[in-house]
Amino acid sequence: MAFLGSGAYTSELLIFLSQLDVKRFSYRIYLLNAEDANSDRQLRNFEKFCEPFSSYQVENLISHCSFWRKVLKYIHYLRIHKPDILICNGPNSCIPCCIAAFIAKFCFISHTSVVFLESYCRVTRLSPTGKLLYYSPFVDSVIVQWPSLVELYRQTDYIGWIK
Predict the structure, then answer these.
(1) By percentage, how much of the chain surpasses pLDDT 90?
(2) Strand 141-144 versus strand 113-117 pairing type
(3) Nearest CA-CA partner of 82 in 111, 54, 57, 60
(4) Domains, the chain, ranges and CATH?
(5) pLDDT digits over 119-154, tens only?
(6) Beta-ladder partners of 31
(7) What whole-number distance in Å separates Cα of residue 158 and Cα of residue 148?
(8) Which of 4, 45, 61, 87 is 20–30 Å from 18 (CA)?
(9) b/e code 137-149 from CB counts within 10 Å (16+ = b)
(10) Residue 85 scores a pLDDT above 90
(11) What is the dihedral of CA 11, 60, 82, 130, to 10 degrees?
(12) CA 55 to CA 81: how far, in whole Å?
């Protein structure tokens, strides 16, 4: 399951996903803001290049509901789909999804691992969303793309630049 933010965040996450083994992740679920036509277009173009036997589903999100209502909606998605992993990046709109995964784990609804991918443009410090998730129990891994960030934030995972 991947949470697609918007704009450049979507592009960056799709580049990351393109490097994963499509056969291992042959069924993918995307959480996408219903009002984000640009990310929807990027996603559909991305999926054209995936293996023909793979399939995906898009869950359209409502952006104007309350924080806790979003959390409950995400818990519902996690209960239905039971993904092994949730990958998110960028905007603070992914925080309710990460909290939902934490609650679902705590309540034995789902055992989804949560990975936050910090943006390539973050060279000297984590983004506000990255900091919040780094210091919280809501994610299992924070991935950074610059070695200087690992020196400051020892619990991050360095993977190098996503190309």
Answers:
(1) 39
(2) parallel
(3) 111
(4) 2-158 (3.40.50.2300)
(5) 888 888 999 999 999 999 999 999 998 999 989 999
(6) 3, 59
(7) 10
(8) 61
(9) ebbbebbbbbeeb
(10) yes
(11) 40
(12) 14
